[in-house]
Design brief:
single chain; 304 residues; alpha/beta; Rossmann fold; 3 domains; 4-stranded parallel sheet; 13 strands; globular; binds 1,3-dihydroxyacetonephosphate; binds iron/sulfur cluster
């Protein structure tokens, strides 16, 4: 059944000139039909160059909005309309505008996990894989970093020469993880390396052998000579790595590392979106798009 549906999706996407982009947190069965799978930075860059006239985004809403901002002429469909990112909704334009006013001279660096509306008042976007590089590269010395306090804390530690004002927000899934979870997993798998996403709390990242984005974690594990790994990010990555490296062992940091928003998209949703019968077509008013896309373009300029 899964194979039949995948075959039909592959046939339809060619017939209808559709590109499927899948964030690495999607299940294996969705990644298998995607034109491209990756972390949020790689997907943003890919969105700009994909030649197809329609893009189906299998991920969360801010990712589909990013595609629309970069490719306004394309039809962009979020495969499941309920897939949001709670972190992206945590701050609004008024709050950040007020903060900017009270801290003149500061540059607002926004994690890409933000709404299009919020991006209109931000100066430059970053993703987990590009945040350190971009914050180092921009000329600004004084930075307001939103909305993820954990990623902000991690970046601040890497760049002590700059001045960071952090604002308290973050990912409810990654922020649930504690030092006790890490110690328990390490006790169960004493020979394993611990790889973690920077959306986790400092008490968790400081115990890691590697800190990086979803793609960064996957690359590290694939290239490493080690044989066992504890994975401190959404559990889809454990599954992908076990498929890719069957001779190695991957353990979730916790069974609770599940993002319900990333899990809501099914292969049937992808099928419906590709045949034009489901998902949500992303619409964006041109004034908003032009104001919001500037910080995404800066991210690509500085991120490479
Ligand atoms: P990446 O930048 O690693 O793709 O992460 C996006 C995300 O939402 C992680 O929770
Ligand atoms: Fe958002 Fe966290 Fe889910 Fe990533 S894992 S999409 S940051 S809620």
């Amino acid at each position: 059944m899964i194979k039949d549906l995948q075959q039909e999706i592959l046939r339809l996407k060619k017939e209808r000139d559709v590109c499927i982009l899948a964030h690495s947190y999607m299940g294996e069965e969705i990644c298998e039909v995607a034109d491209f799978t990756g972390d949020s930075y790689a997907l943003s860059v890919k969105a700009k160059t994909a030649p197809q006239s329609t893009v189906v985004m299998c991920g969360v809403r801010f990712m589909a909005e990013t595609v629309k901002m970069l490719s306004p002429q394309k039809k962009v469909i979020l495969a499941n309309a309920d897939a949001g990112c709670p972190m992206a909704e945590q701050m609004d334009r008024e709050l950040i505008s007020q903060l900017k006013e009270s801290m003149p001279g500061y540059t607002v660096v926004a994690y890409v996990n933000t709404t299009a509306e919020l991006k209109t008042v931000c100066d430059v976007c970053v993703t987990s894989s590009s945040a350190v590089k971009i914050c180092r590269a921009i000329p600004a010395k004084d930075i307001i970093f939103i909305p993820d306090i954990n990623l902000g804390t991690y970046v601040k530690k890497q760049i002590p020469e700059k001045n960071f004002k952090l604002v308290s927000g973050g990912c409810p899934t990654h922020a649930k993880m504690t030092r006790a979870d890490v110690l328990k997993a390490k006790a169960a798998h004493p020979g394993a390396l611990f790889l973690v996403h920077p959306e986790c709390r400092p008490e968790v990242t400081e115990l890691a052998d590697y800190v990086g984005s979803t793609s960064g974690i996957m690359d590290f594990a694939e290239k490493s000579d080690a044989k066992e790994f504890i994975i401190g990010t959404e559990n889809a990555i454990v599954q992908h790595l076990q498929f890719r490296c069957p001779q190695k062992k991957f353990y979730p940091l916790s069974k609770d590392l599940l993002c319900h928003n990333m899990k809501v998209t099914t292969l049937s949703d992808v099928y419906d979106a590709v045949r034009g019968e489901g998902g949500e077509v992303i619409e964006m008013e041109e004034g908003m798009r032009l104001a919001a896309v500037k910080c995404i373009e800066k991210m690509i300029e500085y991120g490479g």
